[in-house]
């Protein structure tokens, strides 16, 4: 993916599976235990990428909404 081009990346999480798609191709699938869904209000979620060749990390921080 470190080719200077934009790519479509999708990560989906269900009650039993984690799936990763890149450019509409499934590249990873794993059966998982049920995810923890009891996150406290105001929790942070980081989405990012790392370039192994240069060790760079780019990310965006998302603030999860207050429950209600």
Automatic annotation (TrEMBL):
<protein>
    <submittedName>
        <fullName>Neural EGFL like 1</fullName>
    </submittedName>
</protein>
<keyword id="KW-0677">Repeat</keyword>
<dbReference type="GO" id="GO:0005615">
    <property type="term" value="C:extracellular space"/>
</dbReference>
<dbReference type="InterPro" id="IPR013320">
    <property type="entry name" value="ConA-like_dom_sf"/>
</dbReference>
<dbReference type="InterPro" id="IPR001791">
    <property type="entry name" value="Laminin_G"/>
</dbReference>
<dbReference type="GO" id="GO:0005737">
    <property type="term" value="C:cytoplasm"/>
</dbReference>
<dbReference type="Pfam" id="PF02210">
    <property type="entry name" value="Laminin_G_2"/>
</dbReference>
<dbReference type="GO" id="GO:0045778">
    <property type="term" value="P:positive regulation of ossification"/>
</dbReference>
<dbReference type="GO" id="GO:0005080">
    <property type="term" value="F:protein kinase C binding"/>
</dbReference>
<dbReference type="InterPro" id="IPR051586">
    <property type="entry name" value="PKC-binding_NELL"/>
</dbReference>
<dbReference type="GO" id="GO:0045667">
    <property type="term" value="P:regulation of osteoblast differentiation"/>
</dbReference>
<feature type="domain" description="Laminin G">
    <location>
        <begin position="1"/>
        <end position="68"/>
    </location>
</feature>
<dbReference type="GO" id="GO:0008201">
    <property type="term" value="F:heparin binding"/>
</dbReference>
<keyword id="KW-0325">Glycoprotein</keyword>
């Amino acid at each position: 993916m470190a080719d200077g081009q934009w790519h479509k990346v999708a990560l989906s999480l269900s009650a039993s599976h984690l799936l990763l798609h890149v450019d509409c191709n499934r590249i990873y699938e794993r059966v998982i235990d049920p995810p923890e869904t009891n996150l406290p209000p105001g929790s942070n979620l980081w989405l990012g990428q790392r370039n192994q060749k240069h060790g760079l990390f780019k990310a965006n921080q998302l603030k999860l909404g207050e429950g209600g």
